[in-house]
Each structure stands twice: as structure tokens, then as C-alpha cells.
From TrEMBL:
Gene Ontology cellular-component annotations: cytoplasm
Compartments, record wording: Cytoplasm
Organism: Lacipirellula limnantheis
Residues covered by the Aminotransferase class V domain: 1-347
Record's protein name: Phosphoserine aminotransferase
UniProt-listed PROSITE patterns: AA_TRANSFER_CLASS_5
Pathway of action: Cofactor biosynthesis; pyridoxine 5'-phosphate biosynthesis; pyridoxine 5'-phosphate from D-erythrose 4-phosphate: step 3/5; Amino-acid biosynthesis; L-serine biosynthesis; L-serine from 3-phospho-D-glycerate: step 2/3
Ranges in a coiled coil: none
């Protein structure tokens, strides 16, 4: 089955094979990853390798801490303002879709916020252009969502925000291409799209920002505590970190790094967008052409009946999880890093055939 789910999503086959091999007993250990202490030398080496792989893939400098946390990206919606938004300060939010709005909703519970840009008037089909942002130079941080999973709009580069720390929800694009981490104050991503299973969330935070965490806040929510304890203040999500290590091994050794991954992702997305562009409007893309996502391809068919028929017939051909999110409708094909080219080619062929049969 080729599963186009928005997450949890497809995993690289070599990673699944390694998990299967290790599941009864890790080589040389005689126990599975589920059965060993997070303080054991074996697990500490796995966690260190996962971090080292991320540092290598993204060229993360020592100015940044890399944290492996639980609670998903949604907990970050709260932890970010709890840690970074001081009394009397305000934080800016750029709203390009559903997840940015959800992040703002949580931040409002913690302090003052301001909306720097909102794409609501066009149902989040496009991104702000340079000069569109209403920025507060005194803001505690500015938050944006680099890829909006539901709408399928994706920033090609970071918004220009001056000196204010840039905070990015990269959940649904993390590791899809190289990134200049030095442009960010904090970047976070739940793993269950491009980096592993649900249960582990990666937070990359500039170390000077750790000073903002109030020592009196609940311990688990405090970035400084996690950084001081190497993400082992409590029992970390050991299985997720182990899979993250395997996924980053795959990116480094099998794929050949993030430049190669980016090329693959561009090639895959082009196959589907070409069908949209050549369909005379039968497949109408949700996102404006220049802002569309390489990860989540969103489009509508001429009617709800045809949409249901599309989803049903695709499923019969083992192309699953294509129904769009209810707020956008239509179809969403999530083609994250691990979706093989063959899966996208099969979907492309299905789309061409479906249009030939059903276009008036
Ligand atoms: N942010 C984005 C961009 C997402 O796509 C998702 C999940 O789909 C989330 C946040 C929420 O992540 P979690 O379910 O891990 O809290």
C-alpha cells in the first residue's frame, strides 16, 4: 500500500527492516530497545548518535541545544510562550493556516500576542510577501509555521524578521531540505511525518534563550532543565529517539544528505503538480502556485461526488489516505521524505487516468 497520510506517515523501508531486526534483541545487547534503561550505555550511545546525526545533517552549531521531548508539537505551542514570553512582552504570530492558528490559541493563554499577518481572507492559500508583515521590533519572538500541513502552503525561505528571535513550527517538513539553523531562535518538529514515530518532538533552541525559562515553572515544561540534563531529566521517549537515529542514519548514508533529499522531494512533487497544471482546472490546486508545498499536495475536484469516487478508486489501487482535511476539502497527498518515487508515479498515473475518464 502507498499511504499518503499526513502523519503518522510512511517510514523508509530500511528503517522498518532495522526495527524488525532489532526488536527481539539489539545486536550485542540481548534485549530489545523497549527493554533497556535510558541510562544504559547502549541507549545513551543511541541518543548521542541521533543528536550527532541531526547536528551533521543541519550543521547545527554548539550555540544550539538539541532536545528530545514528549507531548508532540502541540505541547510546544504552550512551552514556547511559557518559556520565551516574559511579563510585559508580546509575541508576533504569522498565520498561514490551521496549525499557526492553533499555536496562537495556546500562546494567548500565556501572555500578550499580536498577529503579524493572517492569510484567512483567502482561506490560507498563500504566504505573506516581503513587506506584508506587521512586525513589532520589541517582540519576544515571532512564530511561523514553515509548512502548513492542512492547506499545503510552504515557505521557500525564512521570513525576514530582523533581530527578533524566529520561532518555527517545522513539524511537517523537518529534514526535507538543508536549513540555516543560525537564522532561528527555536525550531521544533514532532517526528511523525519526516523523522520517526509519534512520541518524540525535536526542539532546537539557541542557548542564550534558555536563560528566559523561569526556574519556578513546572520542571517538565522548562527548556533549561531539559538542556541541562541532556533530555534525560525524566525518562525520554526511548523508542522514538532510537527510530530518529535510524531515520537520520538513512538520510546520511542511504539518501546522501539533505541536498539529495531535497532533489528527490522536488522531483516527486513536480510529478503531481504537473498533473494539476495540465488538467485544465479539473484538479484545482488549493495553494497559489508560488507557495505550494513539496510535502502536502492539496487540490479539489469539480464535485464532492467525484472527490469520493477518486478516493474510493484510488484505494482499490492501494493508494490510501488521500482525503483532504475537512477545513479545505478535496484531496491531500502527503509525500514526505519516505514516500518512494514509485508511489508518487503510481498516484500520478491514477490521476491522469481518472481525469481522462471523468472530465467532461
Ligand atoms: N504543527 C504542524 C505543522 C502539524 O502538522 C502538526 C500535526 O499534524 C502539529 C503541529 C501537531 O503535532 P502533534 O500532534 O505532535 O502535537
Amino acid at each position: 500500500v502507498y499511504n499518503f497520510s499526513a502523519g503518522p506517515a510512511v517510514m523508509p523501508v530500511p528503517v522498518l527492516e532495522s526495527i524488525q531486526r532489532d526488536m527481539l534483541a539489539l545486536p550485542g545487547v540481548g534485549a530489545s530497545i523497549l527493554e533497556i534503561s535510558h541510562r544504559s550505555g547502549t541507549f545513551v550511545a543511541i541518543a548521542e548518535a541521533a543528536e550527532a546525526n541531526l547536528r551533521k545533517l543541519l550543521s547545527i552549531s554548539d550555540d544550539y541545544a538539541v532536545l528530545f521531548l514528549q507531548g508532540g508539537s502541540r505541547l510546544q505551542f504552550s512551552m514556547i510562550p511559557m518559556n520565551l514570553l516574559g511579563k510585559g512582552q508580546s509575541a508576533d504570530y504569522i498565520l498561514t493556516g490551521s496549525w499557526g492558528n492553533d499555536a496562537l490559541k495556546e500562546a494567548k493563554k500565556e501572555g500578550e500576542t499580536s498577529v503579524a499577518w493572517d492569510g484567512k481572507s483567502t482561506n490560507y492559500d498563500r504566504l505573506p510577501k516581503n513587506g506584508d508583515l506587521k512586525l513589532n521590533p520589541q517582540a519576544a519572538y515571532i512564530h511561523y509555521t514553515s509548512n502548513e500541513t492542512i492547506q499545503g502552503v510552504q515557505f521557500k525561505s525564512e521570513p525576514e524578521v530582523g533581530e527578533v528571535p524566529l520561532v518555527c513550527d517545522a513539524s511537517s517538513e523537518f529534514l526535507y531540505k538543508p536549513l540555516d539553523v543560525s537564522k532561528y531562535g527555536l525550531l521544533y518538529a514532532c517526528a511523525q511525518k519526516n523523522a520517526g514515530p509519534s512520541g518524540v518532538t525535536v526542539v532546537i533552541i539557541r542557548k542564550d534563550l534558555l536563560k528566559r525559562s523561569d526556574p519556578n515553572m513546572p520542571g517538565y515544561l522548562n527548556y533549561q532543565i531539559h538542556a541541562d540534563n541532556g533530555s534525560m531529566w525524566n525518562t525520554p521517549p526511548t523508542f522514538g529517539i532510537y527510530v530518529l537515529k535510524l531515520v537520520t542514519d538513512w538520510l546520511l548514508n542511504d539518501v546522501g544528505g539533505l541536498d539529495a533529499m531535497y532533489q528527490r522531494n522536488q522531483d516527486k512533487a513536480k510529478l503531481l503538480y504537473d498533473v494539476l497544471d495540465e488538467s485544465n482546472g479539473f484538479y484545482a490546486g488549493h495553494a497559489q502556485r508560488e507557495d505550494r508545498s513539496l510535502m502536502n499536495v492539496t487540490f479539489r475536484l469539480p464535485s464532492d461526488e467525484l472527490t469520493d469516487q477518486f478516493v474510493g478508486e484510488a484505494k482499490k489501487q492501494s493508494l490510501t489516505d488521500l482525503k483532504g482535511h475537512r477545513s479545505v476539502g478535496g484531496i491531500r497527498a502527503s509525500i514526505y521524505n519516505a514516500m518512494p518515487l514509485a508511489g508518487v508515479e503510481k498516484l500520478r498515473d491514477f490521476m491522469v487516468e481518472f481525469k481522462e475518464k471523468n472530465a467532461k
